[in-house]
Amino acid sequence: MAKRVLGDDEAALWRAFVHDVAPLRTGRRSALAPAKPACKAETSAPVSRPVGGKASAMMTVRLVEMPTVQRPRVRPAPHVGVRAPGLDDTQWRRLSRGQMRVDAKLDLHGYIVQEAFEEFHRFMQRSRVMGWRCVEIVTGLGSGVRGGSIRRELPHWLHRADIAPMVLGVVHSHQGNQGALRLLLRKKR
């Protein structure tokens, strides 16, 4: 099958469409996608489109380059037992060995998942206000093969956009007990 060649108007429209698309891997640049212009400029490209049933009518498309929006960088919450960047050796060692004093403890035994989440969220907000440094959350092991539903949901709650920036480190309080987590929280600035 022969490769279709784009006309000038189609190539201009394609370049305008992909002007802000970044490649997944760096490599050679496509012949149709030249480098971005240094200045923001309006470009007009005549495009052949049927208007009102007539194929010969021309329509002008005005393309304006939009400024890029800087999104705030959200720090992801660390995974259980994985040392997060920015956590020094001493603090990590004390947290992972269980030598850090626990400021508060939340026991989620007996809650349904929605109630447990609401309690967890209130607890995390309170820990921010109180300036607690190390907290423990007890979910229990659960009765299922994969553990309880609260225990399975807790890592997802820790990765929420409002909770993740607060958490600096997460470990199991004891290697033999997978039903409780200790959280090292960031200092309030």
From TrEMBL:
Sequence ranges assigned to domain Smr in this UniProt record: 106-186
Any matching Pfam family: Smr
Database matches in Gene3D superfamilies: 3.30.1370.110
Protein name: Smr/MutS family protein
Protein species of origin: Bombella pluederhausensis
